[in-house]
Amino acid sequence: MFEKLNGDVDTIYYIGEISRSGYTQISNTCKSLKKNGHRKAVLFLLTFGGNPHMGFRIARALQHHYEDGFTVVIPSSCKSAGTLISIGATELVIADEGELGPLDIQLSKSTELFEQTSGLDLPQAMSALRSGVTDSIRDVLIEVRMGGRLSTKIASEIATNVTTGIYSPIFAQIDPLRLGELHRATMIAYEYGKKLSDKSENLKQSALKQLIMDYPSHGFVIDRKEAKSIFKTVRSPNENELEIINNLSSIILAFEDQTLPNTVVCFPGREQNNEDQDEIITQENDDELNSSEPLQEHDSTVNEGEGFNDERANTAVNKREGHINKRPRKASQRNNEKNIQT
Q1: Do residues 77 and 48 touch, judged by C-beta distance below 8 A?
Q2: Pick from 174, 222, 248, 312: most CB atoms within 10 A?
Q3: CA 274 to centroid of chain Cα atoms
Q4: The pLDDT of residue 145
Q5: Cβ neighbours of residue 146 under 8 Å, at least 6 residues apart?
């Protein structure tokens, strides 16, 4: 099932949350593969997101170990921090059902338990208010000046007073410290993305801003066609890659339905037709995927609310609250779901 690709490349599989545990595993995997002497790696990545700091470190580790860079193969969902890892790749391979997501950072709501908000909510609200103020002054000025036959000076004063009366109570509710906090959180995605892109050189001009600022929802689907407007090198899977993706269909289905255990799995691909290795790796992977052990605790940065949302956490929280909101398989049905993270 977890075959190695043909050619002089290392094949690595990563399934689960982007976390410190995952970073440790992928670092150890890269070290174990160093004996092969390959200059390039191919990473099969299935994730709903996680810790942006660890996403950055995973991509950096792959860039460090492979002089010719690495390719990310996306068979299905690769969201949030998974997208950050993809920025560090020199090439993206996106299957027909594969999708990336935006990079807007998620923060815990101070007034709600287990709920999160996008780091862009308040800045976008500020932008809408600024636009509303400008439109209001212009409309009132024109109406008073043309309709009342008053001088421009008097009409301007009236327009200013009317607009101030409307918007002052709204602006008074904005906490400048919270605004600064959201700005710093958003800069995490920008700075990490810029550093990875400087090495991979696969992002188009202004694409990083597009990933962080331009999409209306954290769950927005970025399919292969949309990804081509963001990344320079994006393609469909070749025959060898497609064969592996098809062999992973049962794992992908369980991943999308959230029936896999909450564990991070990272390991190298195995040589085809190697019966001894087949038996060893298959047993190890089955033990990992069928384990009933709970997911290791999130990194402290994520617990504090500073991170990309891991959509797998939705089900875990709902179970603790006494109900289950199972994530549908189709990406188009997931866009409006609420992001909940422990």
Answers
A1: yes
A2: 222
A3: 36
A4: 81
A5: none
Q: Which two tokens stand for residue 126?
A: 């500020």
Q: What is the number of other CB atoms lying within 10 angstroms of the CB of residue 335?
A: 13
> pLDDT per residue over 165-211, tens digit each?
888 888 888 888 777 777 787 888 899 999 999 999 999 999 999 99
Q: What is the pLDDT of residues 247-297, one digit of tens each?
A: 999 999 999 988 887 778 888 888 765 544 444 344 445 555 554 444 343
Backbone angles phi, psi at 218, to 5 degrees: -65, -30
Residues 6+ apart with CB under 8 A from 97: 75, 76, 252, 331
Residue pair 314/303 in contact by the 8 Å Cβ criterion: no
User: What's the angle, vertex CA 88, arms to CA 82 and CA 89, rounded to 5?
Assistant: 90
CATH number of 10-111+184-320, picked from 3.40.50.150, 3.40.1280.10, 3.40.50.12780, 3.90.226.10: 3.90.226.10
Distance of CA 16 to the CA centre of its chain: 13
Alpha helices in the chain (DSSP H): 20-33, 52-65, 81-87, 121-147, 152-171, 176-200, 207-213, 224-227, 239-247, 249-256, 275-289, 300-303, 313-320
Please tell me the pTM assigned to this model. 0.72
- State pLDDT tens for residues 25-36: 999 999 999 999
* Domain boundary assignment for the chain: 10-111+184-320, 116-177
Cα separation, 314 vs 303, whole angstroms: 14
- Rg of the chain taking only CA atoms, in angstroms: 24
**Model pLDDT for residues 42-91, shown as the tens digit of each residue:** 999 999 999 999 999 999 999 999 999 999 999 999 999 999 999 999 99
Q: Are strands 41-46 and 10-15 parallel, antiparallel or unpaired?
A: parallel
Question: Do the Cβ atoms of 99 and 226 come closer than 8 Å?
Answer: no
Contact indicator for 103, 163 with CB cutoff of 8 Å: no
The dihedral built from the CA positions of residue 192, 195, 199 and 203, taken in this order, carries a sign that is positive
Q: What CA–CA distance (Å, rounded) separates 278 from 28?
A: 20
**Tell me, what's the pLDDT at 211?**
93
Q: What backbone torsions phi and psi does residue 83 show, to the nearest 5 degrees?
A: -65, -40
CA dist 22 and 111 (Å) reads 31
Q: How far apart are CA 72 and CA 41, in angstroms?
A: 9
